[in-house]
Amino acid sequence: MSAIKVLNMAGAEVGTVELNDSIFGVEPNTAVVHEVVKNHLANCRQGTQSALTRAEVSGGGKKPWRQKGTGRARQGSTRSPQWTHGGIVFAPKPRSYRYTLNKKLKRLALKSVLSDKAANGRIFVVDGLDLPEVKTKSMKALLDALESGKSVVITEGVKQNVVLSARNLPGVKTTPANILSVYDLVNAKSLVVDQAALAIIEEVYA
Asked: What is the pTM of this model?
């Protein structure tokens, strides 16, 4: 197991904690992480794109000119795809882009991201990550002290003061430890983890 510093709300070191190598010490699998991120983005798609085929466009019932003798190409409708205001060939229709991945794949992707952050020193464990009141300035002071940059703040549960204090900070997200998103973790530069939340991560994902 590898040791990592435990910091207080001022960013000062107050101790160390061991990281579980089965979660924070695996060999990162970039192909699996890519697959899980792609799945997340696909599942976020609304799939509401729609266009009209030639059968659905209004008008075009009358043949525009006679079949022969005009010198022009034969036409059966002014709503054929080659006409302005005509229908769309293979028009897109509303559909679901959702698909599922197996649990082991998603678990491996999560461990890969956590291991990569740990290996690069981008996990900051905070002893008692909590705020007595809703104050964005206090949350910003903590993140500035850690020099965490774009971050995901991971708490033991839903801590309302932390959530509300962080929501106006650009590039900062909050999440409980038991519902981590691979996409959010990949998209962040650093992870700011409550020490109690670290224990939950090791319990849930080991």
From this structure: 0.83
